[in-house]
Amino acid sequence: MNSQYKIELSVGIFVLVALLCVGYLTVQLGQMRLMGDGHYVLKARFSSVSGLNEGNEILIAGVPVGRVKDIRLNTEDFAAMVKLSIREDIKLSDDSIASIKTSGLIGDKYISISPGGSGFYLQPGDTIIDTQPPVDIEELISKYVFGDVQK
User: Fold this and answer.
1) What gap in Å lies between CA 2 and CA 35, rounded to an integer?
2) DSSP letter string over 16-29?
3) Whole-structure pTM value
4) Is residue 147 part of a domain?
5) What is the mean pLDDT of the chain?
6) How many domains does the chain have?
7) At a CB cut-off of 8 Å and minimum separation 6, what does 134 contact?
8) Is 142 inside any structural domain?
9) What does the pLDDT look like over 22-60, one tens digit per residue?
10) CA–CA distance, 124 with 139 (Å, rounded to integer)
11) One domain, residues 79 and 21
12) CA distances (Å), 139 to each of 60, 100, 134, 136, 145, in order?
């Protein structure tokens, strides 16, 4: 073997190893999984999802358990249908309540789930019936400013 061939072979192996490392890091940093992602999907129907975006967190007792996967408008009743990606190890009962909350006064929106206790669990694809839309801060401030607040 001549020395030129050895150098080319060494460089080729190095480039191959580097490409494998970059591919591995891309998958890990992108939070992609090659064999399933360990989550299941539930749906929730809200009258309003103002400020909620795909990718926002889903919390139970302040602990992240998933992310908002998709938000669509149901054109039959003009309600917002939200797909929730929940970790597989979290089992929610059919009387759980999903609420849209704000972190801080003007922070990001997230979905807070209050687990129920009925003993009947939601299956992948089921819909959370009890939901609460976000509080409209602007509306509350305008009511307070213009004296329309109920005491």
Assistant:
1) 44
2) HHHHHHHHHHHHHH
3) 0.67
4) no
5) 84
6) 2
7) 48, 49, 50, 51, 52, 100, 101, 102, 109
8) no
9) 888 877 776 555 555 689 999 999 988 888 899 999 999
10) 36
11) no
12) 27, 16, 11, 5, 10
